[in-house]
Write the structure tokens for this entry.
Amino acid sequence: MPKPHSSRKGSLAFRPRMRANTTNCRIKNWPVFTKPCLLGFAGYKAGMLHFIYNEDLVASPNKGKEVAMAGTIIEVPPMLVYGIRVLKKTVYGCKILGDYFVKDEAILKKAGIRNQKPVEDLERVKGEAYEVRVLALTNAAATQMGKKVTEQVELGVGGENIGAQIEYAKGLLGKEINADDVFAKGDYVDVIGVTKGKGWQGVIKRFGIALQRPKATNKRRHLGNLGAWTPSIVQYTIAQAGQMGYHKRTILNNIVVDIGPGEKLSQSGGLLHYGNVKNKFILVKGSIPGTKKRLIKLRRALRKPLAKRELKVTFLSKAI
């Protein structure tokens, strides 16, 4: 009989477990869409609720039954497009070929841009361009959470070719965009955010290893073995104390349950630690990373770009 042993403690997929540089996470990959459209949006985590929907999947054991599920509210104020970013492909990855901004001093001042470049220069770099993205500003001041600082975000653009993407991006310069222009009910989205920070933690909480026997080393919450004698090094796979939480994480293939005005979620006193949702909101199925008031980025699903599944919601609870 083989000797039984427990599974390893802690995933090796996320190493090193360091603090994120910023809550304004960078999205490195965008899906490919032939239709001219925006591929993402940004909002703020407001709270959670539960909802009940009728299961209609044929392969589901709950087919024909009502299913209760948790959902997360993301407030999505309108975003202001202030620039276009053109990227070129190199052996070291995509590099910025040029940033081109709207000819409006008030918008550029809000974005912190001083040196304005004319938009007409886009035609000159069209042949060298590999990817086009849109630069936009969030509007945290439009919410009730008390935050005034705006974040600059980078959103992917869809289109058959570079020319179509540039033309579509030009039409958005200086305009406000809404979440329902990008997403609809039933769409699959990827959620990118920074998890809750828990500071420096020991191996028991950080990796969930077993407690030591008191008679073994007169200690309980520590690591018993640092690895083999040969090689005589402590490998990175060994569980050790360190930073826990405040990591960038991506949740794939979340379903957009609902999109609507904030009045639909209004309640006496507002959401706990957030306030009332004054703008439009997106309700996604399940939980997402981060605390309330944290910046959350939504992207059209990278692995399910054409999938859609609209849930038939029969009940929405009050948010907490």
Observations:
- The CA atoms of residues 13 and 223 lie 21 Å apart.
- Residues 162-172 form the longest helix (11 residues).
